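Input sequence (419 aa), recorded before submission:
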Amino acid sequence: GAFEAACAPWSLARAAEIAGVRADQLASFAELYARSNPAVIRCGWGPERNRNGGGAVAAILALPAIAGKFGVRGGGYTMSNSRAFGVDTAGAIAADDPEVRTINMNQLGRALAPATAPPIAVLYVYGSNPLATLPDQNLVRAGLAREDLFTVVHEQVLTDTARYADVVLPATTFLEHDELRASYGAIVMTHSRAVVAPVGESRPNYQVFAELCERVGLARADDPCTPDDLRTAVLAGSGLAHHEAALDETGIASLPGGGIQMVDILPATADGKIHLCPEALLRETEGALHQFRADPATAAYPLALISPATAKQISSMFGQLDRRPTALLVHPDDAAPRQLVDGDRVRVFNELGEVVCRVRVTDEVRPGVAALPKGLWSHHTENGATANALCPDSLADLGGGATFNDARVQVERLGAHTL
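Predicted structure, token format:
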């Protein structure tokens, strides 16, 4: 079939060469996975953040089907359980959906350009720090700097994005408001209550949005307004009203266990079967679901720049707490031909921009790879730019995903060696 044909060109040797692992290690993994029962694959978010991201995740998802890992407890595939409860927030919204444009935030810089027709005149930011987290940082910065863009940022701290706001609205933290949350990993829902009163004039999202609706004439008499009313409406609209007692008593609601994938938990396909080459994905990729697109590295920009998470932050959250400068990590094999030593000031650059920082030479990264943590703020580098200034805003092959891991750069020393 189509999937078998897509797999045919991929020998162990070719896969190992492109992946940068030894062929014998790849063979050992395949053997171990094939022989292990039960075996489960938990896919993270990193594999999708490149030009081949959608096809890569689809291929990973195919492994347990091909290897026969479904149908037993503890076997199969998982990624996130946040949708396990099937929460539908539409029950808390009395009004019909408004007619709006949908803009992919991974290309916010493009969308904020004056040439956008019609141009975006108002930007409301909440729960996000786009200047620190989105690709093509310089383009995002240029958009935020537009004099004719009215920007409102609802935030807990003065982020890099908030510094471009016309109005900053203080936001509550999780300690100051009630929250109904579906879990990221476990199959539970939690309702946490506020433990302190809101500080100053800070308000939660729902209160700000509710008051905005009133001010502009969109509020309706039957809109749920209090946290408890919102919870009741959401649970009722999701067929989960029977969990209210547990949430009131313990703050936790759990789904009954016992489900086994491909026994009593089936794919949401028309026939309840796994499709290795789904028609919808083939249409979206114009038939190129499993067609590999080569590494974008060039002679001018040969190093892959990655932005791994740091234990000091959650994405860009808490970036205000650490004011120390961050160093670029490079492997000794890449440092030597560039005459770099620990502590040197360097310029990391490509056609999108540049970052000026110090360098740390280490074997923590592989040859051909440089690393700067994700979520950095402007105070973490000398020129205020971070890794996202070097990340393209091109999209992955499926789902409009970001391609942070496709950043390719060059590194050069600035001035004399640091003593």
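Checked by second reader. The chain has three domains: 2-80, 89-254, 303-413.
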